[in-house]
Prior knowledge:
The chain is α/β, with parallel strands linked by helices. It has one domain (7-122, 130-135). The protein has helices at residues 19-32, 34-39, 84-96, 105-121, and strands at residues 7-11, 44-49, 56-61, 67-70, 140-141. Strands 1-2-4-3-5 form a 5-stranded mixed beta sheet, with helices on one face. A hairpin with a 5-residue loop joins β3 and β4. The longest helix is centred in the C-terminal third of the chain and has 17 residues, at 105-121. The two termini are 27 Å apart. Zinc ion binds at residues 93, 97, 103, 141-142.
Amino acid sequence: MLINKRIGAIEVDTAFADHEQAYELLELVCNDVKEVMDEYDLQVSQIIEMTDDTLDLGYNENETLGWIKIRVRRTRNNQAFQSESMVMDTLLHELAHNRYLGHGEDFNEFFSELKLSLEGRTNSCRISLPHPMVELERGKQH
Length: 142
Ligand SMILES: [Zn+2]
């Protein structure tokens, strides 16, 4: 199913009973980021939920395989969800890798630009989070 013209599909880990909630969370950030992707002409064919037992928050294989992996659950137990803003941050980070590999100055500038672009479009603070156990957690992003 096509999510929007910038993102082809979302794939979640259906081994979890609440996989629909994971899908909704990814769908929400994918739609919120659409205009930013329009502005910078970024495309991803697939956003895949990351559930491996690493501490990684995201992974970009977009150039060769066409997908980005995003962790939507906390790394410690893979049960409670990350906050929406955390998932969005990871997504923006991985999208920045569509243009720059590694974490050099070019990458950081572009990542900041994407964040500013998103903030400029979001004029309200979303408080109706569907995730009761929000806990910010530091992890690695690639
Ligand atoms: Zn990275």
